[in-house]
Write a structure and sequence with these properties.
The complex is a heterodimer of chains A (109) and B (122). With 109 residues, chain A is mainly β. Chain A is 0% helix and 44% strand. In chain A, strands 1, 3, 4, 7, 8 and 9 form a six-stranded mixed sheet that branches. In chain A, strands 2-6-5 form a three-stranded antiparallel sheet, with no helix packed on it. The chains are: A mainly beta (109), B mainly beta (122).
């Protein structure tokens, strides 16, 4: 099972919006509505920010949103803030396995 | 408040077996799926496997031959064993709560994570 494909890095200025893509196959991202996204700050455990493609856990800012089209999922962060600077990972659950993306470093300029 | 805590040796010799335990507090282990994930220094997340309370397991195809997971409901713990370790198994190992089902609806995301434990193979 290959890792999902994410851009290595993205950047944006405070107040702007950015989108991180996550490309898989019809066997993972495209076959299930079970994509999740994680934010990880240096030295910390990952934090769930989106589950089931587009749902936000309680307590996560509504500036975070998720979507999916075919084999590609996307995470959008609007109104960028300095605290959003972190690594972001997508993840796809299937009935037999789970696979992560390689991660995207978000820099807030 | 649900919390997870990993425990186990921080140093394992090559060719030996890595054993870690995750203790769950604030929730019954019976109602969820549970996963192990690892992260080598400076690299991305790698899913290792998951266990259901029925004892069913799913493992990463790349680690399947070396991984065993188990659960101890009486202690509200689940465990990971990774055999024949090599230097490339050096990583921070996390346990996390996985799929959760409520009233017939299931939600897919690793919503609660332990703080992680560093394991060095040397």
């Amino acid at each position: 099972q290959s890792a999902l494909t994410q851009p290595a890095s993205v950047s944006g200025s405070p107040g702007q919006s950015i989108t991180i893509s996550c490309t898989g196959t019809s066997s993972d991202v495209g076959g299930y509505n079970y994509v999740s996204w994680y934010q990880q700050h240096p030295g910390k455990a990952p934090k769930l920010v989106i589950f089931d493609v587009s749902n936000r856990p309680s307590g996560v800012s509504n500036r975070f949103s998720g979507s999916k089209s075919g084999n590609t999922a996307s995470l959008t962060i609007s109104g960028l803030q300095a605290e959003d600077e972190a690594d972001y990972y997508c993840c796809s659950y299937t009935t037999t396995t789970t696979v992560f993306g390689g991660g995207t470093k978000l820099t807030v300029l | 408040q649900v919390q997870l805590q990993e425990s186990g040796p921080g140093l394992v010799k090559p060719s030996e077996t890595l054993s870690l335990t995750c203790t769950v507090s604030g929730a019954s282990i019976n109602n969820y799926f549970w996963s192990w994930i690892r992260q080598p220094a400076g690299k991305g997340l790698e899913w290792i496997g998951r266990i259901y309370i029925s004892g069913g397991t799913n493992y990463s195809p790349s680690l399947k031959s070396r991984v065993t997971m188990s659960v101890d409901t009486s202690r509200n713990q689940f465990s990971l064993r990774l055999t024949s370790v090599i230097a490339a198994d050096t990583a921070v190992y996390y346990c996390a709560r996985d799929v959760r089902c409520d009233s017939g609806n299931c939600y897919y995301g690793l919503d609660i994570w332990g703080q992680g434990t560093m394991v060095t193979v040397s």
